[in-house]
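Much of what follows relies on a compact textual record of a protein's fold. An example makes this concrete, so a full record is given next.
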Amino acid sequence: MYYINDLTKKKSILRIKSSQDAKTFLTWAKEYSPSCNFVISDNYISVIESELSLEYFGFSIESFCTLLITLKNKKSSLDSNHKLLFETLLKKPNDTIYNCAINSGVNATHAYRPINQLKEYCAKTSSLTGGRNPFVFFTSVRNDLS
């Protein structure tokens, strides 16, 4: 695992599996938050917080999830529930996927369907954006989505 750490604020902002992805996100973080001193490390400084992590890239949890729903190529009447599920997954990283689904109005037995679709859309986005896969924000804070 690699961590992108902000030495200025003494915070870990992302947890990433590959060295190449870490370099990609380091560049992105530096582009959006040039006043911070970012490094890639094998060690983390702090627990990664979803809201703070997204702020380094210019998002709130709500704006990020709204954009993710916009990316979907298959529109659904459940999109508002799925958006709420994605927000809940980020806001409550220690809660189970099952509980996040129930709390967001998504049938818990089908919770993995929108998550897997999101993972697929994010992979496509990554191929268009030079490796900037938005799903990394989920895997950085949740061990159950790796």
About this structure: Residues 2-145 form one domain. The chain has one domain: 2-145. Strands lie at 2-6, 11-16, 38-41. The first helix runs from residue 19 to 32.
